[in-house]
Write a structure and sequence with these properties.
356 residues; 40% helix; Rossmann fold; 7-stranded parallel sheet; 6-stranded parallel sheet; 13 strands; alpha/beta; single chain
Length: 356
């Protein structure tokens, strides 16, 4: 085993890193912190207040800047939440620039904010940033602020690496992983399942339409990230056969997914990775989804089926065949391709290269 490292893991300042998770990014950060700690590395997680104390959390300093009345009334004043997030990362990066080289061997930015990238030249240890999303203007600007940009980039999929390639030529692909022990193989059942954040870009209303067309019961689970979308598009579709069961913790969610005949995955955007796919496969549940983003990298014909994007009818037509796929094949795919161990191996190897 390699020598233990002192890693500053920078997470979201908006959502706590704890169960039930606000989304895949928070679940990924929680798993990575635990996996690195289990390998003997000392991880200090800089995260939102209320995060899991077992992770050794240092709460991001999200104290509000004391803005004057004149500043708050200025036409340039952004939303309060934006200012709070900006202030949190600004204080963190100034702190790391001041003495991060003494306290840490490496900084891993797992947030979506631009300041950890823009201010990386001031930090005296290697900085890694994981690309979790398609290109954003703030992050592209931060990358270009310093012509030499000392940040080492990773990407959560080949798809994500490819869309960033015009600006980031050499992002190393380290796919997100799931702890297969925490997502055990389930017995399957008759119902279908959809789970994730309930927002327009995840398309749960299309899963409901597909299940209805296929004549199958569907259970949906996850946090309501967009109340207007839920009320307008999803709530009218709910009844005894299409049911929303709430925002479940990981144990109950794994039980729900493992007891399903198949999982429907309906991204209405190019999914950078698709953690719900890996979680479903770990539960032995085959996946039927839209062929967008990175889903085609995770699934193969033995454990899932992909149909044209946004086509609820095609999804419905593929359901029966998907439910007949071998559950053991789905589980093997998770164990070999998208396990937590595989992901942790990738990051640990990169850390050692950068700190050698």
């Amino acid at each position: 085993m390699s020598d233990p490292l002192r890693v500053a893991l920078v997470a979201s300042s908006r959502f706590p890193i704890k169960e039930p998770f606000a989304g895949g990014l928070e679940a990924h950060t929680w798993s990575l912190a635990r996996a690195l700690g289990a390998r003997g590395h000392h991880v200090e997680l800089f995260a939102a207040p209320g995060s899991d104390p077992a992770l050794g959390v240092t709460e991001l300093p999200v104290h509000r800047a004391a803005l004057s009345t004149a500043a708050r009334s200025d036409v340039s004043m952004p939303p309060r939440e934006w200012m709070d997030e900006h202030h949190a990362y600004l204080r963190l990066m100034l702190d790391l620039a001041r003495d991060g080289g003494r306290r840490f061997d490496l900084v891993h930015n797992n947030s979506l904010h631009h300041l950890p990238v823009a201010m990386a030249p001031a930090v005296r240890v290697p900085v890694v940033t994981t690309l979790h999303t398609p290109p954003t203007p703030w992050l592209e600007s931060a990358i270009q602020a310093d012509p030499s940009c000392p940040v080492t980039f990773t990407a959560v999929s080949e798809h994500t690496a490819s869309v960033w390639r015009p600006l980031v030529a050499d992002a190393r692909v380290i796919r997100n992983g799931v702890d297969t022990a925490l997502w055990p193989e389930g017995p399957g059942g008759d119902h279908l399942v959809w789970f994730g954040r309930i927002v327009p870009e995840k398309g749960p209303h299309l899963a409901a339409e597909a299940a209805r067309k296929a004549g199958r019961r569907l259970l949906l689970a996850g946090p309501v990230g967009d109340a207007d979308y839920f009320t307008t598009y999803l709530a009218p579709l709910l009844d005894e056969d299409i049911a929303y069961v709430g925002h479940l913790d990981r144990r109950d969610l794994a039980r729900l997914v493992g007891g399903a005949a198949a999982a429907l995955v309906t991204p209405c955007w190019d999914e950078p990775y698709g953690l719900v796919v890996a979680e479903a496969l770990s539960c032995g549940t085959p996946v039927c989804g839209f062929d967008r983003g990175a889903l085609g990298e995770i699934l193969d014909p033995e454990c899932g089926a992909l149909v044209p994007p946004d086509d609820a009818g095609a999804l419905a037509d593929a359901v029966d065949a998907t439910t007949r796929l071998d559950r053991r094949a789905a589980r093997r795919r998770a164990e070999r391709f998208c396990s937590l161990e595989t992901m942790a191996d990738g990051y640990a190897s990169l850390y050692q290269e950068l700190t050698a």
